[in-house]
Specification:
Number of strands of chain A: 0
Shape of chain A: flat
Structural class of chain B: mainly alpha
Number of domains of chain B: 2
Distance between the termini of chain A: 15 Å
Helix content of chain B: over 70%
CATH topology of one domain in chain A: MetI-like fold
CATH class of one domain in chain A: Mainly Alpha
CATH architecture of one domain in chain A: Orthogonal Bundle
Shape of chain B: flat
CATH topology of the largest domain in chain B: MetI-like fold
Structural class of chain A: mainly alpha
CATH class of the largest domain in chain B: Mainly Alpha
Low-confidence stretches of chain B: 1-23
Oligomer: heterotrimer
Low-confidence stretches of chain A: 1-8, 191-195
Number of helices of chain A: 9
Largest sheet of chain B: none
Radius of gyration of chain A: 27 Å
Radius of gyration of chain B: 25 Å
CATH superfamily of the largest domain in chain B: MetI-like
Strand content of chain A: under 5%
Mean pLDDT of chain B: 83
Order of helices and strands of chain A: HHHHHHHHH
Strand content of chain B: under 5%
Largest interface: A-B, 85 and 95 residues
C-alpha cells in the first residue's frame, strides 16, 4: 500500500471526523481507567518498599499494625544504619564504577556489531546474528564456575575488572540484538527516502 | 541514534579508504566492506567466544561427569534426572511457569502499549515512566519487596483481605497459590519490557494505514488484527522468544519468594539446579539440570529467528 | 537461622564483600607491627562466614591479629555472607579453580563436598581432642572422612537448635514452668522432672497454646531450620532414612509412628509454617504471636533489640524426649585448609590458636552465646550463665543433661547424607503427609524412591 493511493480518500474521511472524535473521547476515558489499574499493579511493590524503609525495627518486628502505612512514626534509622554501620557507601561506589564501565563497553561493542550486522553482509553474518541470540540459552546458574576460572586465569580475581569483564556477557548480546533491529530499520527508512 | 552510527562509520570508512591496496576496484570494495564489518563484530565475537561459548562447552562437559568429577558418564546424569519424580515435576512446573508468565507479560505489554499509544502525546511520557518502574528495580530487590507483601505471617495483601471481610490467602504456603504468586511476580517484572518494545513498534506503524482502514469502515479490532499485528509480527516474535528463554532460566524470583517450596512444587530448572549443584554439592547433576532445556529452546529459537529474518527481508 | 533479609543475588559470585573486607583487613594489619619472618609466605588469607551478630566478626579479627602479631604473619580475613549461599558459591568456585583463600569456613556438609581438595588436619584435630576431650559426634560425622579430618569445627557460627519458649505463655496456658524444669544451673536439674519433658508433653502443651491463640511455630519448609528439628524428632523416634551401608530403612513402624505424631503436631501450628524460610520462626517468636520455636538464640537476641518484652520472656532449653532418646539438631561449621594453600603450617598453627578455650571464650562472648564450640568441656563458659534478660536465658542452649546432638541424613554415608539433608527429603515427606494429605504409604514410597536417588554413585 502506498501513500499516493490514499490521497483521494482523505476527503471522504472528513465526514467521519465527528463520530471519530466522540469515539476517541470514550477510548481515552477507558484508556485512563485501565492505565490507572495497571499503574497500581506496577507500583504496589515499590510503594511498599518505600514505606517499609521508613519504619522502625520494632514496628516491623511486632507485625501488629497496618502494613500499608507507617504506624509507629517515621524514622530515618534504617538509612542512618545503612550509611554509618555498613559498608553500603563502598558497595555503592563499586556499583557506580562497575556500571559505568560495563555500560561503556556494552555500548561500544554492541553499536559496532549491530551496525555491521544490520547493514553489511559478510560471510557468516547471518549465523552470527542468530548466534548472539542463542547465547541467552546458556543458563547462567552455573556459568559462574567457568567464568571464575577465566577471571582467575586473567589474574583479575578480587578486582573491579573481573566484574567489568563478566557483566558484558549478560548485557552485550541483548543490546546488540535490539540495535540490529534499529539499525536495519533506519536503513529501510533511509532507503525509502531515497526512492 | 541512527545518526551517530552513521557519522561514526563515515569516518571509519574514510580512514580505511586511504589504505593502499592493489586489488581490483570492485573486489577491493567488497573485500573492504566485509573486512570492516567483520572487524566491527570482532569485539562481540571475542566476548561471545570467551565468555559464553567456552563456559557453555565447559557446562556441557561438566554435565557429563560423575558427581566426584572423576570420570565421564555421557548422558548418565540426564537419564538419571528423567527417572526422578521430583525432576519430572520440575520440568512440568518450569513449563507452566515460563509459558503462562510469558503469555501474560505479552498480553499486558500489548494492552498497556495500546493504552499509552492512545493518549495525547504529552501525557504519554508520564505514564510510560510509571509503568516502567518494575523494570528498573533490581529483580532481587523487588522479589524481596513482593515477598514482604506475601509474607506468610503478616501479609500486606491478607491484611487488606481481612479488613474487607475475606479469608486470608495462603500465598506462599499452598502449592497452587505459591505457583500463582511466583508467576505473578514474573509477569509484574517482565511486562514493562514488552510494553516498551511494543510501544516503539506501534510508533513505527504508519498512521496512514489506520486512516485508510478507518475509511474502509474497519473497527478497532479489525485494525488491530489486520494492521497492527502483521506490522508487529517480528517484534512480537523476538520479544516472546527472548522472554521465553530468560523466563525458562529465571532464578531470583523463585529462590527468594519460595526457595522452591512448598514440597518442591515451585522449583524451576535454575533453582533446582542450584539446589543439586551448589547446596547438595553435585555440580555435574546441577549442570545437567540447567542444560536440560537447551536443545528444545535452541530448535525453537532457530526456527523463530529464521522466520523473523525472512520477513525482515521481505519488508526491507 | 539468621534474621537479616538481604537479597539473595546468587547468580554470580559477588566480590564486593570481599573487596571491602580486604580493605578492613589491611587496616588491621597496619595497626600491628608488620615484620615478615617465620613463615615462608608470611601471609594467610581466610574466607569466613559473615556473622549476623553485629560486632561478632571483630572478635575473630582480633584473635587472628593477635596471633599474626606473635608469629610475624599477616592475616587477612574476608567475611562472606551465607545469604543466597554466597559462601558456598565462593567455596565451589575456589575448589574448581584451585585458587583463593588459604582457609575457608564451610557450613554443614561442605567439608564432605570438597573433601578431595582439602588438606588432612588430623594433627590439629587429634591435638584438640587430646586437650579438650570428646568432640561432637556430628562434627566428627561431617568432617572426618574415611578416617581423615578434613576440617576443624569452628566456634563461629556453629549451632544447635533447641527449644526457645515463652516463659509466661507456657506457665499460663500449658501449666509448665520451663525455668523450673531447666534452671540455669545443671546441678539443679531434676532427672525425674526432666523425663516428663517428652514429645507427648510437647504436643499436649502445643494444643493448649494453639487454643489460647499462641501456637508454637515449627517451620516445615525446605531450609535448615525445618530439616534440623524434623531430623531431631525422627532420631528421637528411632527413624532411620538410610543406614551406613546404603540400606533404605524409611519404610518402618518408627517412621509411621513419627509421621502420625507429626500429623497431630502440625495441626496446631500456624498454616504458614510450610512457607517459612529460616527467618520465619524467628519473626514468629519476636512478633509475640508465637509461644515456642526451635532455634539458636538469634531470635531472642533480635527480640532484645526490637521487642524487649518478648526477649525478657524467652527461655532456651533442651528438646523434648522421644521413645529413643532426647535429640537436638546440630549444625556445625568447619575451617577447611585448601590443599592448594601455600602456607599450610601457618594455617594449622592459626587454627590451633583460635580453637583454644581462651579464644573460644572470646568468640562465645562476642556472639552472646550463639556460637557453640564442638567440645562439651567448653560448655561451662561464663557467657551462657550470665547472658540476660532474663539471666540464664541461654544456659540451656548448649546440649546438657541427656540431650544428644544429631543431624538429619546421618547415619548414611556422608555423601548420601548431604543429599538427604540438602534436598530436605524429611520435611517434604512430612509436608506431603500433613499438608498435602497424601496417603502415608504413598509418601513413604515417594521417600524410598528419592532416597534411592541419593545413593547413585
Amino acid at each position: 500500500m502506498s501513500t499516493a493511493a490514499l490521497a483521494p480518500r482523505v476527503n471522504a474521511g472528513l465526514q467521519l471526523r465527528s463520530s471519530l472524535s466522540r469515539n476517541r473521547r470514550w477510548a481515552l476515558i477507558t484508556s485512563y481507567v485501565f492505565l490507572v489499574a495497571f499503574a497500581i499493579f506496577f507500583l504496589i511493590p515499590p510503594y511498599y518498599m518505600i514505606v517499609t524503609a521508613f519504619k522502625s525495627d520494632a514496628e516491623m518486628a511486632r507485625m501488629a499494625t497496618n502494613p500499608w502505612i507507617i504506624a509507629d512514626g517515621i524514622t530515618l534509622d534504617q538509612f542512618r544504619i545503612l550509611l554509618t554501620q555498613t559498608d553500603f557507601l563502598t558497595f555503592f561506589r563499586n556499583t557506580i564504577i562497575v556500571t559505568v564501565c560495563v555500560v561503556t563497553i556494552t555500548m561500544v561493542v554492541s553499536v559496532l556489531a549491530a551496525f555491521s550486522l544490520g547493514r553489511m553482509k559478510f560471510w557468516g553474518s547471518g549465523v552470527l546474528a542468530t548466534g548472539i541470540f542463542l547465547t541467552y540459552l546458556v543458563p547462567d546458574t552455573l556459568l559462574f564456575i567457568p567464568l571464575f576460572q577465566i577471571v582467575k586465569a586473567l589474574g583479575l580475581l578480587n578486582s573491579y575488572w573481573g566484574m567489568v569483564l563478566v557483566y558484558p556477557t549478560l548485557t552485550v548480546p541483548f543490546c546488540t540484538w535490539i540495535m540490529i533491529g534499529y539499525s536495519s530499520q533506519s536503513r529501510r527508512s533511509s532507503m525509502k527516502r531515497h526512492l | 541514534m541512527a545518526d551517530t552510527v552513521q557519522t561514526w562509520t563515515g569516518s571509519g570508512l574514510r580512514g580505511v579508504a586511504v589504505a593502499p591496496s592493489t586489488l581490483q576496484p570492485l573486489r577491493r570494495f567488497l573485500g573492504r566492506h566485509s573486512t570492516i564489518a567483520f572487524l566491527m563484530c570482532l569485539p562481540l565475537m571475542i566476548i561471545i567466544a570467551g565468555l559464553v561459548i567456552y563456559p557453555a562447552c565447559f557446562s556441557i562437559y561438566l554435565s557429563m561427569l560423575n558427581r566426584a568429577q572423576t570420570h565421564f558418564i555421557g548422558l548418565g546424569n540426564f537419564k538419571f534426572l528423567l527417572s526422578r519424580d521430583v525432576f519430572q515435576m520440575v520440568v512440568e512446573q518450569t513449563a507452566i511457569f515460563a509459558l503462562s508468565a510469558v503469555l501474560f507479560k505479552a498480553l499486558i505489554g500489548l494492552i498497556t502499549a495500546h493504552l499509552i499509544n492512545n493518549l495525547p502525546a504529552k501525557g504519554q511520557r508520564k505514564w510510560r515512566g510509571m509503568l516502567l518502574v518494575p523494570w528498573v528495580i533490581p529483580l532481587a530487590l523487588s522479589s524481596l519487596g513482593w515477598w514482604w507483601l506475601f509474607d506468610p505471617t503478616h501479609s500486606a495483601f491478607n491484611y487488606v483481605l481481612e479488613e474487607l471481610g475475606f479469608t486470608e490467602i495462603p500465598w506462599l504456603s499452598q502449592p497452587a497459590w505459591a505457583r500463582f504468586s511466583v508467576i505473578l511476580v514474573n509477569v509484574w517484572f517482565g511486562a514493562p519490557f514488552f510494553l516498551i518494545m511494543y510501544l516503539a513498534a506501534l510508533k513505527s506503524v504508519p498512521e496512514q494505514l489506520y486512516e485508510a482502514a478507518a475509511i474502509d469502515g474497519a473497527n478497532a479490532w479489525q485494525k488491530f488484527v489486520h494492521i497492527t499485528l502483521p506490522m508487529m509480527r517480528n517484534i512480537i516474535a523476538i520479544t516472546v522468544l527472548f522472554s521465553l528463554i530468560v523466563t525458562f532460566a529465571n532464578f531470583d524470583i523463585v529462590q527468594i519468594m519460595t526457595g522452591g517450596g512448598p514440597r518442591n512444587t515451585t522449583h524451576v530448572f535454575a533453582t533446582y539446579a542450584f539446589m543439586l549443584g551448589i547446596r547438595s554439592g553435585d555440580l555435574p547433576l546441577g549442570a545437567a539440570t540447567s542444560l536440560f532445556m537447551f536443545p528444545i529452546l535452541a530448535v525453537a529459537a532457530i526456527f523463530i529467528l529464521r522466520g523473523v529474518r525472512k520477513r525482515g527481508r521481505e519488508i526491507g | 537461622m539468621t534474621v537479616t533479609l538481604l537479597p539473595a543475588q546468587s547468580r554470580k559470585v559477588s566480590r564486593r564483600s570481599v573487596l571491602k573486607s580486604a580493605a578492613l583487613g589491611s587496616a588491621a594489619v597496619l595497626a600491628s607491627p608488620y615484620v615478615k619472618g617465620a613463615y615462608a609466605a608470611g601471609s594467610l588469607s581466610l574466607g569466613v562466614w559473615d556473622h549476623w551478630v553485629p560486632g561478632a566478626n571483630k572478635a575473630l579479627t582480633a584473635l587472628c591479629d593477635e596471633w599474626g602479631a606473635k608469629n610475624n604473619c599477616e592475616v587477612k580475613i574476608d567475611y562472606i555472607t551465607s545469604q543466597g549461599e554466597k559462601d558456598k558459591l565462593t567455596a565451589a568456585a575456589e575448589a574448581q579453580a584451585g585458587t583463593g583463600h588459604d582457609i575457608m569456613s564451610h557450613r554443614d556438609w561442605n567439608i564432605r563436598i570438597h573433601a578431595e581438595v582439602l588438606e588432612p588436619l588430623n594433627d590439629v584435630a587429634d591435638g584438640l581432642i587430646k586437650q579438650y576431650g570428646p568432640i561432637s559426634p556430628v562434627a566428627e560425622y561431617l568432617a572426618k572422612i574415611k578416617g581423615t579430618w578434613r576440617g576443624i569445627p569452628t566456634t563461629v557460627g556453629s549451632q544447635v537448635k533447641p527449644c526457645c519458649s515463652r516463659i509466661s505463655l507456657y506457665k499460663e496456658h500449658a501449666g509448665i514452668d520451663v525455668q523450673d524444669l531447666f534452671p540455669a544451673d545443671e546441678s539443679k536439674w531434676d532427672k525425674a522432672k526432666i523425663d516428663t519433658w517428652t514429645w507427648d508433653t510437647y504436643l499436649t502443651s502445643a494444643e493448649k497454646l494453639y487454643k489460647a491463640g499462641y501456637p508454637v511455630g515449627l517451620p516445615m519448609g525446605q531450609t535448615s531450620d525445618a530439616v534440623d528439628w524434623v531430623g531431631a524428632l525422627f532420631n528421637s523416634f528411632g527413624v532411620v532414612m538410610v543406614d551406613g551401608k546404603d540400606n533404605i530403612k524409611i519404610n518402618s513402624d518408627e517412621t509411621r509412628q513419627a509421621m502420625e505424631y507429626l500429623k497431630k503436631l502440625m495441626a496446631v501450628n500456624p498454616p504458614e509454617v510450610y512457607a517459612w524460610d529460616d527467618a520465619g520462626n524467628n519473626r514468629w517468636l519476636i512478633s509475640g504471636k508465637g509461644s515456642s520455636i526451635m532455634n539458636p538464640p538469634s531470635a531472642w537476641a533480635v527480640a532484645k533489640r526490637d521487642n524487649p518484652s518478648v526477649a525478657a520472656d524467652c527461655w532456651t532449653h533442651p528438646m523434648p524426649k522421644g521413645p529413643k532418646g532426647r535429640f537436638v539438631g546440630q549444625l556445625p561449621q568447619f575451617y577447611g585448609l585448601w590443599s592448594f594453600s601455600k602456607n599450610k603450617q601457618a594455617a594449622k598453627d592459626l587454627l590451633l590458636y583460635i580453637s583454644q578455650k581462651s579464644s573460644v571464650a572470646q568468640l562465645v562472648e562476642a556472639s552472646s552465646g550463639y556460637d557453640l564450640p564442638s567440645f562439651k568441656t567448653m560448655y561451662d563458659l561464663d557467657t551462657w550463665k550470665k547472658v540476660e534478660p532474663p539471666v540464664g536465658t541461654v544456659y540451656g542452649y548448649p546440649p546438657r543433661g541427656d540431650e544428644q546432638t544429631s543431624i538429619a541424613g546421618a547415619p548414611a554415608r556422608s555423601e548420601v547424607g548431604a543429599q538427604i539433608y540438602n534436598q530436605a527429603i524429611n520435611t517434604v515427606m512430612v509436608a506431603k503427609f500433613t499438608q498435602g494429605n497424601e496417603k502415608l504409604d504413598d509418601v513413604i514410597k515417594w521417600a524410598e524412591n528419592e532416597l534411592e536417588g541419593t545413593l547413585r554413585a
